[in-house]
Amino acid sequence: MGATLVEKIFSSRCGKEIEAGDVVMAAVDKAMIHDITGPLAVQKFREMNGNVVFDPARIVMLFDHQVPADSIQAAENQKFMREFALSQGIHNYDLREGVCHQVVLEKGHAAPGEIVVGSDSHTCTYGAAGAFATGIGSTDMGFVLRFGALYFRVPDSIRVEVNGAFAPRVGAKDLILDIAGSIGADGATYQALEFTGETFASMPMPGRMTCANMAIEMGAKAGIVPPDAITWEYLKGRRPDVRPFTLENDEEATYAEWREFDVTDLVPKVAVPHNVDNVVDVEEIAGTHIDQVFIGSCTNGRYEDFAEAAEVLGNRTFSDDVRVILIPASRDEYLKTLRAGLIERFVKAGALVEAPCCGPCMGGAFGLLAPGEVSLSTSNRNFRGRQGSTEAEVYLCSAATAAASAIYGEITDPREVA
Ligand SMILES: CC(C)[C@H](C(=O)O)[C@@H](O)C(=O)O
Ligand code: SF4
């Protein structure tokens, strides 16, 4: 019998043949905690009589949701977490690097075949690097901090096969919105999405991250892209301890479903309020007035997103009627964007460029919307209240669509901006 990628990973980690549906105790390679969920996980760890963490080198701690601290409570949480890291000898911790998921990948904390957990739902992003990565709750994380392992019910997989080449100004975000629209916000609950086909095989890492990131928006436990030359190239220098090896699904693997997409005729897509699977072609809602544009987050806050936004912007400026907030997802991405001269261009065009953090993505630190306001955002969630008032609206799109719309103050098809 053949195995899916996820079954292969669990079989290899558990040292015996594992099938979807099996419940196994598996060791984790890395565990990620952040400023918001970390304190509760530490509390749970202590309640389990935790004194010393299982392995400080396998814990990654990052601050991103409320940085710099935006309230006394946030400052207290961060102080508490810093002290915990120091007392436990956790040195993979940083207060300045940026959005946790981007930083985990950049620092090589996730590699093919590894099992990585994080106390954040978008931990599934690391499937872009061929890892089985999933978000867990704080009680589970307390257990992981203590024992370095966790019970998993091995998910079955939906094979998402994508073929064709993208048209100009159409890319990974449009694809994953299209997939979310078709699978539905709960269409992959407790399953894994295995992203295959020629489109993924030629997709650079940033696009793979965007797609794996949004697996959870369909309810999936994980999203995974089979590791290939692109993955190994990305890991070069980040993971000197890992040598390339083959990790692929078997021809005869059993999938819960097999879905096929072709991007040849794909057009820019937008998820309209208030659900991620309310997906329409941009032209259907072109002209919708917007108050704020956010380009950033673990979904689309990478240099490539800003480069595309800059291409669309050209020598224009952003509309005076729109607050344009741009936040590179990490210091590395910020520096790349800075060195390319894009930050200066964006600032001159009227944007606010902030230091790496989650920003307005979940209506946390800043960039909140007033009742009746409309946001166009490159992030991953648009439910009511996500970016401020429950009476506000959030639309989700690619960086190209966000930039085009920011120029005109209304939702605009990026293909129309010559
Ligand atoms: C704060 C955290 C628990 C949350 C998550 O788990 O995803 C956040 O990152 C989000 O995107 O909503
Ligand atoms: S950028 Fe948004 S989705 Fe990503 S971790 Fe931060 S709040 Fe969650």
From TrEMBL:
Binds 1 [4Fe-4S] cluster per subunit. It catalyses: (2R,3S)-3-isopropylmalate = (2S)-2-isopropylmalate. [4Fe-4S] cluster binds at C298, C358, C361. Its cofactor is [4Fe-4S] cluster. Keywords: 4Fe-4S, Amino-acid biosynthesis, Branched-chain amino acid biosynthesis, Iron, Iron-sulfur, Leucine biosynthesis, Lyase, Metal-binding. Pathway: Amino-acid biosynthesis; L-leucine biosynthesis; L-leucine from 3-methyl-2-oxobutanoate: step 2/4. The keyword Iron-sulfur applies. Its EC number is 4.2.1.33. InterPro entries: Acnase/IPM_dHydase_lsu_aba_1/3, Acoase/IPM_deHydtase_lsu_aba, Aconitase_4Fe-4S_BS, Aconitase_4Fe-4S_dom, HAcnase/IPMdehydase_lsu_prok, Homoacnase/IPMdehydase_lsu, IPM_dehydratase_rel_enz, IPMI_cat. PROSITE patterns: ACONITASE_2. Transmembrane segments: none annotated. GO terms for molecular function: 3-isopropylmalate dehydratase activity; 4 iron, 4 sulfur cluster binding; metal ion binding. Residues 7-284 form the Aconitase/3-isopropylmalate dehydratase large subunit alpha/beta/alpha domain. It is an enzyme of class 4 (lyase). GO terms for biological process: L-leucine biosynthetic process. PANTHER family: HOMOACONITASE, MITOCHONDRIAL-RELATED, ISOPROPYLMALATE_CITRAMALATE ISOMERASE LARGE SUBUNIT. Heterodimer of LeuC and LeuD. Catalyzes the isomerization between 2-isopropylmalate and 3-isopropylmalate, via the formation of 2-isopropylmaleate. Belongs to the aconitase/IPM isomerase family. LeuC type 2 subfamily. This is 3-isopropylmalate dehydratase large subunit. It comes from Methanofollis tationis. The lineage of its organism: Archaea, Methanobacteriati, Methanobacteriota, Stenosarchaea group, Methanomicrobia.
